[in-house]
Structures are given as structure tokens and as C-alpha cells.
Amino acid sequence: MRILIIAPHPDDEIIGVGGTIAKRAKAGDEVYVCVVTKGVEPIFKSELVEQSRSECRQADKKLGVKETIFLDFPAVMLETIPRYKFNAKIAEVVEKINPDEVYIPHRGDMQLDHQMVVDAAMVAVRPRGNNYPKKVYAYETLSETGWNIPNIINEFIPTVYEDITDTIELKIEAMNIFKSQLAPFPAARSIGAIEALAKFRGATVSLKSAEAFSLIREVK
User: What torsion do the CA atoms of 209, 212, 217, 220 make, to the nearest 10 degrees?
Assistant: First the structure.
């Protein structure tokens, strides 16, 4: 089985899907990660951008990712890219990988990059013909999911829980590689916060650790 995780920025895939990635890779599935954006100067320092990219490769490799694809669209400036060009590039990745399952961010995330990636991804995974992903999930991203204006549209509503009890440590090890992104607890992007969310999602369904997803579509 081929699985594609679409991440607006490096580390989003670890925060939202890291335990599931490791679990599925261990089971023999082919897991691909598409990182959509790259920081550009003067907004981001080039040294930090390169560090983050190196960390992303290392972290994905630790989890068993088969290939990490970088699209290099400008971070926090996606609205400057013509929508048709952006949509076409995401669709190109989906067509190349031809995944059975796709994981995308939550549409209600605070960050505009996340919202635009979701919109482009949903265009790319439209159920046309017979050759399209049969399962599409939304994942939550600490520091983005839950920080937007609280309403029914922005609310993340879990419908699927993945048991990551056996892979939570791998997820933590992978996240620890991201020295450029981590902060001490109680920061949202901290090891303590990631562990706490995994325990909370797990306890919701009587598991020690879990990742929660919202099922967007499943075709059987």
C-alpha cells in the first residue's frame, strides 16, 4: 500500500502523523512525505531553512519514509502563487505517487499555508475515474489546529484513532531531531505537548497512545 502525507512545512508530518508513519512503514507500506513550502529570506534565515530541511530528511528517514519530496513554494507567501499553478504541482505529486491513502492538514488550522494546502490537496484527490486515493484523512498539528477562531467549521473532530503505543517513542525520537523547531514545554511544539496529546487521544479510546484523524472520505 502507498501512503502520502502532505505537510505544509517541515515537521508537520511528524507532529500530526509521526507515529502512524512509523507503524505503517514497519508493516511494509510505502510511505511518502511531500513538504510543500520552504522559508525564503528575508523572512527566514537561510541557515535555519537548511537546518530545518536536513532535520526533516533525518526525521523522516528514522520513521521509515521511502521518499521525502520538497516543492519549495515560499512559506507564508502561498497567496502570491497563482492558484492554478499551485494546484497543478500538488496534483502532479499525487499522480506520481498514486497513493491508496492520503493524509492532509485540517482545513480549520490557523495558518493560511495549511488552509491553502488542504484546498489544493482536495482538488488533487477528487474521486474521478477509478484511479484516485480511496482514503483521505485530516491530521491535527499542534500550534495550528485549535488556535483558530472557535466555530464548527474550524473545529477538529476526530473520527479515527490510530494506536501508536508501539511507535510513540520513534515519533518522539524523530521530533527530537528538529532542534530548530522545538521549544520547552508548555510550548505547543514541545516534546511534552506531543506526549500529552498522544496520551489524551489514546485515553479517549482506552489506548496508551494514539493519533487522531478526521476521515474526509473512504471508498470501499
Answer: 10
What domains appear along the chain, each with residue ranges and CATH number?
2-218 (3.40.50.10320)
Query: Vertex 75, ends 40 and 83: CA angle to 5°?
Result: 120
pLDDT(130) > 90: no
The helix-helix angle for 168-176 and 46-63 (nearest 10°) equals 160
Q: Which pTM does this prediction carry?
A: 0.97
Give the contacts of 219 (CB within 8 A, at least 6 positions apart). 127, 134, 135
DSSP 87-148: HHHHHHHHHHH--SEEEEE-TT-SSHHHHHHHHHHHHHT---SS-S-SEEEEE--TTTTT-S
CB-CB contact of 17 with 30 (8 Å)? no
- Asked if the model's pLDDT at residue 57 lies above 90, the reply is yes
12-26 vs 168-176: helix crossing angle, rounded to 10: 140
Q: Distance between CA 91 and CA 122 in Å, rounded?
A: 9
pLDDT of residue 213: 99
For residue 70, the surrounding DSSP H or E stretch is strand 67-74
Q: What is the mean pLDDT of residues 174-194?
A: 96
CA distances from 2 to 65, 138, 147, 163, 166 (A): 11, 17, 32, 19, 21
> Which tens digit of pLDDT belongs to each residue from 16-55?
999 999 999 999 999 999 999 999 999 999 999 999 999 9
